[in-house]
Specification:
The protein is of the alpha+beta class. Helix content is 44%, strand content 18%. It has 2 domains: 146 residues, no CATH class; 36 residues. Strands 1, 2, 3, 4, 5 and 6 form a 6-stranded antiparallel beta sheet that branches. A hairpin with a 2-residue loop joins strand 1 and strand 2.
Length: 212
């Protein structure tokens, strides 16, 4: 049961529901979200860097709708890694290996206490307006903001709009692939997790990861 405070807060959240991994906004707009791999640009050769830049430029030139690139930075939770090392320590056959693991875990704890180790997650938010009139100024600049088309008609089919949005998501994923970036659409549970983290930035959550 919602409290008066939570009900008041929900009025400022533009999201109506999440269906099939799609964010449905209160004004009838739709948002699909791609999680993207990263590219270590600094370690590439000059030719590889030029190819990445050229591929990304081509990707931008092929778009006839706005997209938003979102980067989320969070402090890494090192506890699962330390727990794994502790389990490994128990299985070591010699005291020397156990001692080395204990010293390594001590170093990791000391290092992370004095240094903020951050993880970065990269997303591309793809908008779709049922009327096809989404404006860049409304779609870009706020991750899950409203569209410019106004409320969708009751007769509009979600499945039809989903097909259109999926086509856009596929186009974006294909274009990013030319730059060596792999992009995968988020599912419903992953979108919910992302929204929760977006509206609760102080919460410590494990990052969403690309599946191999």
């Amino acid at each position: 049961m919602s409290t008066p405070a939570s009900s008041a807060a929900q009025k400022f959240v533009p999201v109506k529901e999440i269906r099939n991994g799609v964010i449905v906004l209160k004004d009838g707009g739709y948002r699909g979200v791609l999680i993207c791999s990263s590219v270590n640009f600094g370690l590439k050769s000059a030719d590889e860097q030029n190819a990445i830049i050229s591929g990304f430029q081509t990707f931008l030139n092929t778009l006839d709708f706005p997209v938003e690139i979102v980067v989320q930075s969070r402090k890494m939770d090192i506890r699962p890694y330390l727990a794994l090392l502790a389990e490994k320590e128990k299985s070591q056959q010699t005291e020397l290996l156990r001692l080395q693991l204990r010293e390594y875990m001590s170093f990791i704890r000391s290092f992370t206490e004095n240094t903020n180790i951050m993880t970065k997650s990269f997303y591309v938010v793809v908008p779709y307006s049922p009327t096809g009139t989404t404006a860049a100024k409304d779609a870009v600049g706020k991750m899950f903001g409203g569209s410019s088309s106004g409320p969708a008609h009751a007769s509009d089919s979600f499945e039809e709009h989903l097909v259109q949005l999926q086509q856009r998501l596929g186009l974006v994923a294909s274009g990013l692939g030319a730059s060596g970036v792999r992009a995968v659409p988020l599912g419903t549970e992953e979108v919910i997790e992302l929204l929760y983290r977006s509206f609760n930035p102080g919460e410590l959550e494990n990052p969403i990861r690309l599946e191999n």
